[in-house]
Amino acid sequence: MASLVSNLWAPSSFALTEFNPQSRAQIRCLAAQESSILSTDTVRLNEVSSAKEQERSIPMMDRGNGHLPAGGSTREKKKKGEEEVMQEKLEPLWDDGYGTRSVEDYMDSAKDVIKPDGGPLRWFSPIECGPPLKNSPVLLFLPGMDGVGLGLMLHHKALGRVFEVWCLHIPVKDRTPFEEMVNFVEETVRNQYASSPNKPIYLVGDSFGGCLALAVAARNPVIDLVLVLANPATSFNRSQLQPLLPFLEAIPIELHFTVPYLLSFVMGEPAKMAMVTVDATLPPRIALEHLAGKLTALLPHLSVLADIIPKDTLLWKLKLLRSAASYANSRLHAVTAEVLVLASGKDNMLPSGDEAQRLERSLRNCKVKYFKDNGHAILLEDGVNLLTVIKGTFKYRQSRKRDVVMDFLPPSDSEFKQALESNKIYRYLIGSVMFSTLEDGKIVRGLSGVPSEGPVILVGYHMLLGLELVSLVEEFLRQRKILVRGIAHPTLFSQLVETDSKEFTFYDTLKIYGATPVSATNLFKLFKTKSHVLLYPGGAREALHRKGETYKLFWPDQPEFVRMAAKFGATIVPFGVIGEDDMAELVFDYNDWMKIPVLNDYIRKKNEDWNFRARGHVAGEIANQELYMPGLLPKVPGRLYYLFGKPIQTKGRQDLLEDREKARELYLQIKSEVENSMAYLLRKRVEDPYRSILDRTAYRAFSAPIDQVPTFDP
């Protein structure tokens, strides 16, 4: 076997693919959980000589010559005759691996990766990142001050399913000037653009890497780049560390071992780092014990920072940071790329919160997400799943223009668990009960009556403020692993719902769970992809109804969805839901607010600013979709009840396409089914001995979890 070109150490977590710098031909590949070698010769990787030793590792693929080849962003091909399996899409509740890696893993891996090899800058790809979905875009990770390139350790598995992930490694002894680094990354970006001009290229820049990403973007305004900047170091001249810099430069080399411990508490929030692998569902006392153990285990690993950043490297990196910040700031006006800034509220190294606001003002297309409890090393801390943030801000796409249906990534198992944990109090309060109707007309508890195979469209009543929405989506995922994609008002996808705090909100969560702006095009695509669709014909008028209108349907006269459902042979499932009158009393509605001077002008002006007419062509009461916030008086919570009616088949119903009157008849039948379902539930709920939260609480205390509390017999 040919000799190795680059001796980048393969720690207990990595295996390498080597390339000859002249021919760029693949010589050897050791894939994840596999130890097949393309030659019988023994190859030594810094004294690790056997395949058996290698397979105890988390694999890595390394580019010995530094560069990715043109068109070579794809993971290296397997041996001849073996086809690479690439998925077309992800299934709901897929395993993203988040919470299985920690900062300890980063330290352990970094300890081996940083061993001197005399090599230049180079790209590597952790094999645990793949294989990605078909047509996935390239993601280039640009590291922070450490230069190791393992800053995405917590996110490798998740990102690797939807991106071609390559990470930049800057060796400890490397002294490449900043502009040469820009040239190096720029060459890679231009090669990728030349091979796939219609795909975006993602640059994830951590701290120093943020400056590098901005510099490359400024010099390449024509290339479709998406920048994700985690606490970018463009504010280095205003760093809280400035008074300490003379001390760091003057400290004797014998005392340099103390610097990592200082930097570790400056660069990150130790508690947030330790919390990554602590199960959030544990009881508080046990969770605290686990956290204490993780913090204690973390401390011995901090000494690795002294090897990652020895004194001479530290001095060089400080100069490099000054140069990088100055270079990037002088070129912000030239950046046309899409930019997402992640800013920490407890960054003790940089004024990241203020800097994010400055960048938002200075850049043409910049969005900010603020994480008030995180420190500088945000990508290694708990509470920030990078892929979740990218999805929630609508930044993931596989082509030049984002397609809200085709580019959608379903929620992962860790995202769902996080949602369940966040909503547990709400679930406890509403105690929702689901019923469905089988083909023979029998009503049963649970969702077994709803077809598994799409396309399916759930059509029903939209409760006040959409109180029913969270539980409906959660239960379909929990009971059936079916993701229901809601058709939503366009306002929810606009800047108008952004809060001043820039924190992750409920509206971002809606996007993660598949909420889709209402349009005929989007409904067409959802049917085409055999999705389960959630449609409220009454829309905002129903969800923001007035006093005395509880459980009243405000549906348009036209059968908007029936003919399209018939075109794709979709199954229509009408459903009713009740319980809002057991949760709160509507004391101030739209008519009440409009009687108050000044406030009425404010509401009217807001609706003019929003100017979203999802049904501008529709006449009548349904067209009055003014948005406002109802005034509610909470009650002692009762219970939400859902009934999904007997599925209505449209497959083979050519008459629905050819005869509008037939379509209208079916439309009125569906509307009647929804009204009958609500009437049935209103009649039956009086038989429920656990309708009150007080009775459910007593039952749970002695008998069962919330989803097993009994109800009436259907």
From TrEMBL:
One of its GO terms (biological process) is triglyceride biosynthetic process. SUPFAM superfamilies: alpha/beta-Hydrolases (SSF53474). Residues 163-382 form the AB hydrolase-1 domain. It holds the Pfam family DAGAT. GO terms for molecular function: diacylglycerol O-acyltransferase activity; hydrolase activity. Belongs to the diacylglycerol acyltransferase family. This is Acyltransferase-like protein At1g54570, chloroplastic. It comes from Coffea arabica (Arabian coffee). The gene is LOC113727502.
